[in-house]
Amino acid sequence: MNETNELKPFSLNAQELQEYQPNRYPFLMIDRVTEVVPGKYAKGYKNLTNNEWYFPKHFPGNPNMPGCLQVEAMSQMLTVAITTCEGMEGKVAHGYKVNVTFHEEVHPGDRLDIDAQVFSFKRGLCKGHVTASVDGKLVAEMDNTILIPEIFYQFRPKPVDKDKEA
Amino acid sequence: MSNREKYNKAFIDSLELEEDQLEGLTYQGVPSWDSVGHMGLISELEDAFDIQFETDDIVDFNSYDKGIELLKKYDIEIE
User: Fold this and answer.
1) Does residue B79 lie in a domain region?
2) Do residues A131 and A150 lie in contact, with contact meaning Cβ atoms separated by under 8 Å?
3) If A5 and its partner were Cys, which of A38, A108, A113, B12 is the partner (CB 3.0–4.6 Å)?
4) Is A94 a catalytic residue?
5) B26: which chain A residues are within 8 Å (Cβ-Cβ)?
6) Which CATH number fits the domain that encloses residue B24?
7) Which stretches of chain B drop beneath a pLDDT of 50?
8) B62: contact with A, CB 8 A cutoff
């Protein structure tokens, strides 16, 4: 299967990106993809307003974006970097491994800029590194492994049948 | 480096194992050899022996010994 499309960068607006990212409100965590090269990288952002559903409770008096949702936003951007490959459009991706560091809080009014770089994408398994920044300042970064189950599980081995062997 | 050494190194590097864990090792026999670990192992072996596994062989590769058997299809003998 050809998992890389043409290398010319393109952008996706809020509506277009939903062709490649199956999450929906209230769990679609990216607003726009400003530049994507399928199988290589995706860059874009999430605009945060006081109307985000989590700010009233996280936390009263100091609303800030939950770290787990920053991870989700960054993972969604990495997903777009591979679901824009030929034949991958809109496929569901699952997380496998995350190693994340949070540097700064992210508040209402911030624009969370996300840069997702693909290190490898083979047989439905993608390894990448994603950074998030606000006003040019790094707020979070992570190594991320995600997979597309529909493809990945075609290659899952059969466990050894110990009883049969005995 | 002999083919056996290359073969063992692929397991040791991709699954973070010690050499004495390899004999009799099976898929899911250690936590690191899960489905994702398996893909890492397959990639290591493809790089080490400059081959491209067929899908059926990736699925059938479920033990240290089975891998040796499968590699014969690719003219790789693990002595």
Assistant:
1) no
2) no
3) A38
4) no
5) 159-160
6) 1.10.1200.10
7) none
8) yes
